Amino acid sequence: METKVVEMKNVNEFGFYEIRMESIGGQGANLAGKVLGEAGVLNMGINGLNFSSYGSEKRGAPVKAFVRFAPAGKEIYVNSPVERPQLSAIFHEQLIKTVPVMAGVTPETVIIVNTARTPDEMRDVLKMNSGKIVCIDALKIAMEEGTRVNTALLGTIAKFSGFIDPEAVKASISHNLGKKYAKLVPPNLKTFDRGYNEGVLKEFADDGKYPPVDACGGVACQKIGYLNQPIGGVIPVAGTSIQKDLSPSREGWIPVLNKTNCKDCGECDITCPDMTFEWTDGTNALGKEGRVLVRINYQYCKGCLRCVQMCKFDALHAHKEAEVDEEILKKGFTRV
């Protein structure tokens, strides 16, 4: 496609425009960074690079995707992670509880959040001193269009970056999906357009409501890193997996347990990859002493719905999470 002269605003001291995506495995941040990087370099004629940082390659593991752009005449020799982004995209608001998403953020940073909340509500969640917040319900868009949140967020990123050509990104989406998944191209392009048009921006001045955030973004912000980790990289504290919150992995659907139909057979527990089901000793549904299913702990549920497919007794059903009563989410079951 024809390239145009691109004018980047709000670049850093090195002349770069840097984007950081905060996500977890399964939400497509790695692919989003690749699509965005290709759109800039191949379709817009600017210099750029992208890469991701993640641990175990599985659904629910923390992921950061980085994109760095520079004008066509400026070479990029920096390949370190983005520490002070001009734009930060948070793929799920639950990440705010467990990931330091505000590290390195300045008043000039545009923060995009996948949420159904308003910018005013998100400011209180982020405890942000001043700056720009864009709220986009990417999950709702993805569910309605049968896609994923990454495509909707790409549209929002393109719009509020101020220079990324939406047609260049759409061409990159078509290129990446067209070879193997051609039928997914039209719904993803529609998802992109909705993400581009439905984001809500609000800029906040420093009104003293919250203190300024420490803008450090590197090793100084890490509680533990390569400078101070134990010998051999061991983890001295046992049982840390109990602190994990896998709810950001969900794509809008959850299993709901109807204990009226449950036979305590345990097949749901066998198929669950994350030990979401809680059990106790007691008298089971067959009137015998044994293990009794208590509830679903949604903190560890990734919404894979394998348990729903496995259940033979109509005790587990898939529901849209946004439509499930808050009391059911707290109790972990219902009786119908």
3D structure, described in words:
By secondary structure, the protein is α/β, with parallel strands linked by helices. It has two domains: 17-221, 3-Layer(aba) Sandwich (Pyruvate-ferredoxin Oxidoreductase, domain 3), CATH 3.40.920; 252-331, Alpha-Beta Plaits (2-Layer Sandwich). The chain is built from ten helices and eleven strands. The strands form three sheets. A seven-stranded mixed beta sheet has the order 2-3-1-4-5-6-7, with helices on both faces. Helix 2 (95-98) links the parallel strand 4 and strand 5. The termini are far apart. The relative contact order is 0.12. The mean pLDDT is 89.
Strand order, main sheet: write it out.
2-3-1-4-5-6-7
* Number of structural units classed as domains: 2
Query: What percent strand?
Result: 15-25%
What is the CATH first-level class name of the largest domain? Alpha Beta
CATH topology of the largest domain: the name is Pyruvate-ferredoxin Oxidoreductase, domain 3
Number of helices: 10
* Count of individual beta strands: 11
Structural class, by secondary structure, is alpha/beta
Report helical residue fraction: 25-40%
The CATH superfamily of the largest domain is identified as Pyruvate-ferredoxin oxidoreductase, PFOR, domain III
Quaternary class: single chain
Biggest sheet details: 7 strands, mixed
Overall shape: it is globular
Mean pLDDT: 89
**What is the N-to-C order of secondary-structure elements (H for helix, E for strand)?**
EHEEEHEHEHHHHEEHEEHEH
Instruction: Quickly give the CATH architecture of the largest domain.
Output: 3-Layer(aba) Sandwich
Q: What does the radius of gyration come to?
A: 22 Å
Distance between the termini: 57 Å
